[in-house]
Amino acid sequence: MNTDTVNLPSLKISNASFCKQKRFSEILVFIVIHKAVNEPRNGQWSYWDSWSACSVSCGGGVRSRNRSCTEPPPQNGGDDCVGDSIQSAICNTFMCPGKHI
Q1: Phi, psi angles (nearest 5°) of residue 71
Q2: How much is the pTM?
């Protein structure tokens, strides 16, 4: 490699315009930014949405809530979020008025 000029994508640094210390600093900044932009990033879950209304008013129903793998989404080959995107729960389990076994 020629020590007088360093060519990197979108960055050209030469001894004619920069001192050696500045050249080193510019290259280091480019490498850090390039690595941060291109390294794999695993997905992370968003917060859970609010619970839905129960599917029935009595007698046992189901409610649910959702979350998404978008905080951040997986990038550059990073892993998807681990776990479920939907949670369900039983609700309104009391007997309905007037209904007896």
Answers
A1: -125, 60
A2: 0.59
Measured in degrees and rounded to the nearest 5, phi and psi for residue 58 equal -160, 165
Domains of the chain as residue ranges with CATH: 5-38 (no CATH), 41-96 (2.20.100.10)
Cis peptide before 72 (omega within 30 of 0): yes
Q: How far apart are the first and last CA of the chain?
A: 87
Tokens (6 digits) for 41: 């990033």
Question: What's the token pair of residue 52?
Answer: 């839905």
Beta strands, E only, 55-100: 61-66, 86-91
Query: What is the mean pLDDT of each successive set of 10 residues along the chain, which is 101 residues long?
Result: 48 52 67 72 97 97 98 95 98 88 58
Comparing CA positions, the residue from 61, 63, 64 lying closest to residue 86 is 64
